[in-house]
Amino acid sequence: MEAIKLNQIGISFKGSGSYVPNQILTNQNISKKVDTSDEWIKSRTGISERRISGIGENVVNMGYEAALAAIEMASWDIDSIDLIILATSTPHDLFGSAPSIQAKLAAHNAVAFDLTAACSGFLFALVTASQFLKMGSYKRALVIGADQLSSYVDWNDRRSCILFGDGAGAIAIEATNEFNNFIGFDMKTDGERGSFLNLPFNNNIDSIINNIDFMNGGFSPIQMNGQEVYKFAVKEVPIILNNLFKKINYSSEDVDWLVLHQANQRILDSVGERLKIPKEKILSNLEYYGNTSAGTIPLMIDEAIRNNKIKQNDIIATSGFGAGLSWGAALIKWG
Ligand code: UT7
Known about the structure:
single chain, 30% helix
């Protein structure tokens, strides 16, 4: 690769990949466990089924498969990868799972670390990786979003268990002096509303010896105030995208594809309406995968690229949102 000139560094989107477990959990299956129905779930969320990790599957092997497919599309030598960021809230090892993906890929020249921002995680990781590239620190980065929420869902809570599934996606980005396809971004968090969606530490108190207590490791299942998260998403996502368009002199009419975090079809429709983006430009695959947290955005982008929907130079507006609360938006041109 040629030397990069620091004052002209742009980002190029070179490849995508994704992976979902084979095991399918349908709405009918869930209705055998909790008091719900296919009709209720479909009409309130748009979801028909979701994938559940098989025994031995985790974010490392899901992320690895997605990463490998992205590297192949990008036609990269493994040794040329400088940076791997894994967005996940469900690491296979709390000390970090990205280095295990690095090891499986044998990407010996890359530094790899995890980033946690729940359903905004992929977007935050993409922005983070792009900053390393734009500063000239690294040239090639792999951004992975992978989550295995099935391990943390309360499968007896019908208000939340219907939403989530497991999956992973990855995008390969590269620094270039020729153009900049990472057109703009914005990120936000509001910890004061954090209690609307949590996967909290379980605070189980135990004793090491007499009078020395400690809190045993472990997490409680997902706790969610669905209505509040819904209201947050349909309000904040159009605002952050509209503000981004204004900041970079774009309009929603310039957008070829709207790729939102796949949380609920009603959220996608409402955001699309508020932004005046027609339905045929709003990509959706949540019918088959549900909400895979950090996985949804790259999973959706990869599917659309491989189905020849997203093409070279198409403008993609994307937004991730969820626990934290956190949300973000980015405008990119594919290629
Ligand atoms: O990444 C972000 C992750 N989180 C989200 O995206 C969550 C966003 N929120 C949502 O998607 C929606 O709020 C839900 C799909 C979770 C719930 O839909 P809703 O239209 O907001 O339903 P609701 O909570 O207002 O509940 C309406 C009724 C209630 O019954 P009553 O009190 O009216 O008699 C619930 O008990 O539906 C009942 N209900 C269900 N019924 C059948 C709640 N869950 C179910 C269920 N099956 N699974």
